[in-house]
Specification:
The protein has about 400 residues and is mostly helical. The protein contains 19 helices and no strands.
């Protein structure tokens, strides 16, 4: 791993320069509500313990003096029911550590982005290491894939402090040790990844097939979560609503590929038909039919109503499970087509996304309007000053 870091040190130097520049800039431009809200509950963890899972945003707003950028919209404009805290304990504990940093809230927020940014580079290192092991790093297509992965990971970290970055760390570690047939480490890291965000569960069938009896390590790794669920019933209820990503979590469809659109606009079925054909044609070309288990999870994007575009990053690490070059290229093309289908879904359902609060939801992640207001005010004040000078003359 150290040799890989030395080999690609120029990439990491450039990455850290970009991080130094963009982390503070994007903290001003973007409204990182997920990061801010999780950090708020991290603070409350030290007061309530697991009792935070009995608390919702309205309770906090009524009883604490906190900024609105740390909470869901209480009026439910974004479509969120007033849930109790819904993220798993691993996320809560991660943020509770930052809540103990002896610094003001803004510094704590920035520290979250910095730590996640370091993890972005560790993820990049793991990708390059696995690519080197298969001599894929000599291929242009692989470097393009790594570039896309890095940009996506980097973007969601500096603009939102998203947990996908941390999840991908443990997922990639699991895949790395799975390829080494170190089943205990692969199972434990996979269990940790699932306890942060649930999407790594997609590789569990493949892990069970390969590890056989030693797959028990995954279930051993899941014991802490199951134990905590048994202690806190609200934790399980809210968590299930969150990971189900359906109408119980939000009444808004942020996913243009969601099958529910068909009942509002029958033309929406076109994305399902096109992508289904792509999947069938791709499966025919596979050299190793076991890779079907890696391809099929992409269909899950059509099942959930709450899917943001950056969720496409879920499928990037799975590519490293594929051993032969041609099958990996096929898989990456499928993920690319899924992104195109997402855009097509928006166009097909454009009326829905224009007329509903979804625009507000996307817009709520940015402080751009505040910047525009400041620029406008500056221009107006400058104009008034010029007018006053002209009037005096």
């Amino acid at each position: 791993m150290i040799e890989t870091a030395k080999k690609y040190r120029k990439f990491f130097i450039i990455s850290f320069v970009l991080g130094i520049i963009f982390i503070p800039v994007m903290d001003i431009i973007t409204l990182q509500r997920d990061r801010n809200r999780n950090l708020l509950y991290g603070h409350l963890f030290w007061e309530y313990g697991l009792g935070v899972y009995d608390i919702n945003d309205k309770f906090i707003m009524d009883n604490y003096d906190v900024s609105e950028d740390s909470l869901f919209d209480i009026e439910e404009t974004m479509g969120h029911p007033n849930l109790t805290y819904e993220y798993p304990p691993a996320v809560l504990l991660f943020y509770s550590v930052f809540a103990k940093i002896p610094a003001n809230l803004q510094i704590q927020r920035i520290m979250v982005n910095i730590v996640l940014f370091v993890i972005v580079n560790i993820n990049l290192l793991l990708l390059l290491k696995m690519g080197d092991d298969k001599s894929f790093t000599k291929k242009r297509w692989f470097l393009i894939f790594v570039g896309f992965f890095f940009i996506a990971d980097f973007f969601i970290t500096i603009t939102g402090g998203k947990m996908e970055t941390l999840t991908n760390l443990f997922l990639l570690l699991s895949i790395y040790f799975l390829k080494k047939e170190d089943w205990s480490k692969a199972g434990i890291f996979l269990a940790i990844a699932v306890q942060i965000k649930v999407y790594p569960i997609f590789i569990l069938p493949l892990f069970l097939i390969k590890a056989k009896k030693k797959a028990v390590w995954f279930f051993i790794g899941m014991i802490p979560l199951l134990f905590l669920f048994s202690l806190q019933t609200n934790m399980g209820a809210s968590f299930i609503k969150h990971v189900s990503n359906n109408e119980t979590y939000s009444i808004i469809y942020t996913n243009p590929l969601y099958y529910g659109h068909i009942f509002l606009n029958p033309l929406s079925i076109i994305t399902i038909i096109i992508f289904g054909i792509i999947i069938l044609k791709s499966i025919e070309k596979l050299k190793d039919k076991n890779n079907i288990l890696i391809i099929l999870p992409t269909l899950s994007f059509f099942l959930f109503s709450w899917q943001m575009p950056w969720y496409l990053i879920w499928f990037f690490p799975f590519a490293m499970l594929i051993e032969n070059e041609s099958d990996m290229i096929i898989y990456l093309k499928i993920v690319g087509f899924l992104g195109l289908m997402y855009l097509l879904g928006i166009l097909v359902n454009l009326n829905y996304y224009i007329s509903n609060a979804i625009l507000y939801e996307f817009g709520s992640h940015f402080n751009g309007s505040l910047l525009i207001d400041k620029i406008n005010n500056t221009v107006i004040n400058f104009s008034k000053t010029i007018q006053n000078i002209s009037f005096i003359k």
